[in-house]
Amino acid sequence: MTVCPTRASCNPFTRNRDKPGWVAQGGTLAVPNFDNCVPIFPSWQWAVKPAQHLAPADAAFGGAAELGTVGRRMSPPRTLFRLEVNMFHKSLKRQMFVFLVLLSAFLFTTASFGGASASELAAATATRTRTPTQTATRTPTRTLTRTATRTPTRTPTRTLTFTPSKTLTRTPTRTPLYYANTAVSYADTWAHGRNPSYPNGGTGCNCSDCTHYISQILDVAGHPYRGQIGRDWVQDWWYSAQHSPSTSTTWRYTPSFWNYVNYYSNQGIFEIASSIAQLSAGDIILMDFEDDGMIDHARIVIGYGYTSTNSRDYTNGCGTQTPVPTSAYTLLANQHCSDRQHVAWNWGVYSSYKLYYIRVKR
Q1: What is the distance between the alpha carbons of residues 237 and 248, in angstroms, rounded to a whole number?
Q2: Which helix (H) or strand (E) holds 330?
Q3: What is the rounded distance in angstroms from the CA atom of residue 204 to the CA atom of residue 194?
Q4: What is the CA radius of gyration of the chain?
């Protein structure tokens, strides 16, 4: 392939300003032939194809007749660049036209079949946007409220409720409850005997054990020691084998026991009833023989049942036997000195006696 000697000899795009169309050398009108000349890279020189590859019409543009030596170096023709720009513009216009047609069809379809205007779409968008906002707001509010409410409420309740209860319950030596059934069982077990676990209050004519017997029953049935062990005041009631004496005066001496009952009657430990009908199993009857304010004797109430017909329950403690009454259903009582079991609550009581009916707190 030979390089074109001149620019004009290989330029089929020379524009005639006076006439439309393209002209070659000699002024003859011709259609541009892009196959006549080809660029040679990288020098951008132009060369003419061999004559045997050119059509007769191409000879007018140089052809093989004008083959010569290598000409000067040349840049690509400006006319070719302009043609390419024009073709690009036309292609771009066609693409824009197709895009506008498709966009119009899409908008028409949305308006016809979608059923939603621009304002409705905006409202729907706003609604969808608000949904996560409401959810995000409510969730932390509920969580923070419930957590704070439960934590401060439950913690102090448990602490204030259980801690004082344990402290007040364990501080006394005994639980502040009185079990009447236990009291009755112990009273029947030791009605004619003496429990070696406690001091012996004597038997027969030398017996002074009635209040000591009542105190044992209270102790076993759960009535708590009160006051200070080793001290002997009116509010003290206790037994301790490690002390001498081993009991308080209120434990074994009937008048002192009455003072102890009076002291705690205003605190709900004991209640002084007005009649025998208010007493039940485990309660106490105190007797003042001379009605001089000095209590002389004590009995424990067993409950309702039939009176005993055992002769040993009807002696004076010194060997003198009294008649055995006929068995009857009534309120029963036990006592020491003289020892009696399941006798009528008022057996051997004279009208001159003054009686005190004591209810023990359960």
Answers
A1: 6
A2: strand 329-335
A3: 12
A4: 65
Token pair listed for 255: 């008048």
- Cβ proximity of 87 and 80 under 8 Å: no
Q: Averaged over 334-345, what is the pLDDT?
A: 96
Mind listing the pLDDT tens digit for each residue in 252-304? 999 999 999 999 998 889 999 999 999 999 999 999 999 999 999 999 999 99
User: What is residue 264's predicted lDDT score, i.e. its pLDDT?
Assistant: 95
Tell me the angle at which helices 254-265 and 210-220 cross, rounded to the nearest 10 degrees: 40
CA distance 11 to 62: 9
- Calpha distance 343→124 (Å, rounded): 96
Calpha distance 133→273 (Å, rounded): 73
pLDDT at 117 over 80: no
Question: Residue 199: CA atoms inside 13 Å, Cβ hemisphere, count?
Answer: 21
- The Cα–Cα gap between 347 and 325 comes to 10
The reported pTM is 0.53
Task: Return the structure tokens found at 10.
Answer: 């290989």
Positive/negative CA dihedral, 238, 244, 245, 246: positive
CB distance 302 to 340 below 8 Å? no
Sign of CA dihedral 91, 95, 98, 100: negative
C-beta neighbour count of 108 within 10 angstroms: 10
In a 13 Å sphere around the CA of 331, the CA atoms on its Cβ side amount to 16
Distance, CA of 72 to CA of 87 (rounded, Å): 30
265 close to 234: Cβ distance less than 8 angstroms: no
How crowded is residue 271: how many other Cβ atoms within 10 Å of its Cβ? 15
Please state at what angle helix 210-220 crosses helix 180-189, rounded to 10 degrees: 130
DSSP 50-83: PGGGS-GGGGGGSTGGG--S-----PPPHHHHHH
Give the end-to-end CA distance of the chain in Å, rounded to a whole number: 134
User: Which of 154-168, 212-226, 342-356 is predicted least confidently?
Assistant: 154-168
Query: Predicted confidence band at 55 (pLDDT cuts at 50, 70, 90)?
Result: very low
Alpha-carbon span 80 to 15, nearest angstrom: 11
What is the C-alpha to C-alpha distance for residues 19 and 279, in angstroms, rounded to an integer? 146
Q: State which H helix or E strand residue 105 sits in.
A: helix 78-113
